Sequence to fold (340 residues):
Amino acid sequence: MIAIEWLCDRLKIIDQSRLPHEEVYLELSGYQDIARAIRDMNIRGAPAIGVAAGYGTALGANAIKTTDMNQFQKELSEVIETLVSTRPTAVNLFRVAERMKKVAAFGKDVEEIKKALTDEAVKIHFEEEKATEKISHLGAELLNDGFGVLTHCNTGPLATAGHGTALGVIIYAHRQGKKLRVFVTETRPRCQGAKLTAWELKQAGVPFTLITDSMAGYFMKRGEIDCVIVGADRIAANGYTANKIGTYTLAVLANAHGIPFYVAAPTTTIDFSLISGYQIPIEERSPEEVTHIQGMRIAPEGTQAANPAFDITPSQYITAIITEKGIIKHPLGEGIGRVA
Ligand code: MRU
Fold:
């Protein structure tokens, strides 16, 4: 399975919204198609949407007709604006946009800039792949043979366009021959755990147990969980971490049970422009994702529902952040500056 593949004039992605029932690939040739795929979560996961936005910028730039530099820059800004307006929480989108803008600021003519943007998109993809490979290897050192490991949401190759972050660690530890008892939370409301993590673990031959989000405390109390490992959508300079809704609950629970809580993320997920994690914008999604499951209403007509897609975990609950440049141990604040 290749989650995301650059075909020079278009981007091929696996449609994550149809997994695990159907393996359908989409070929996206316009930047608007890529923006729509990110917004509708055909492609999702912080590093993966960053990579897709890089290719989206390249496709958008290549479709611009003018050779006039000013006009080109104006149209390119619209392309980038469209791509970054898709999802607000994962910093990867904004990082990629900044990189692409920098590349576009140099170059003697439009053709040269177009080529440089495409090269940059390929480079971003390659870097994410390498970073997630390193994270998987480094993180696996924290997992002992026989460990019970709980993970949340989906952080595998699908979410990263690479090896995976938290799930990459689990899959790599399994490949090393460690026998793990993996607990996967279903991750309501969109069930990325039940749909995508379960699918990826099955593909990788890693045994796992699916639990509802509300069962985590029960299994921790029974002593079945030796560590929790999750990904991240944005980490502020103080180490406070935005990740899929429910992460904060798991971190507090892990703390109450004396269980290590790890965040695995590439350094591109760290946003030094934010002093506090509470400055991270939290995406509010449609209440229908809560009142309905698979399009079927489960709550009475007229029910008010809230749907914040992410939450913030304060750094005091995080035992360590696993990055491609090293493991940042608690307390995180200063350590983050050293690694990134
Ligand atoms: O809303 P999603 O499915 O894009 O959210 C994904 C997550 O929260 C992941 O945990 C996160 O992106 C980590 S990336 C490997």
Q: What stands out?
A: The chain has a mean pLDDT of 96. The first strand starts at residue 4 and ends at 6. Residues 140 and 281 are 31 Å apart (CA to CA). The radius of gyration is 20 Å.
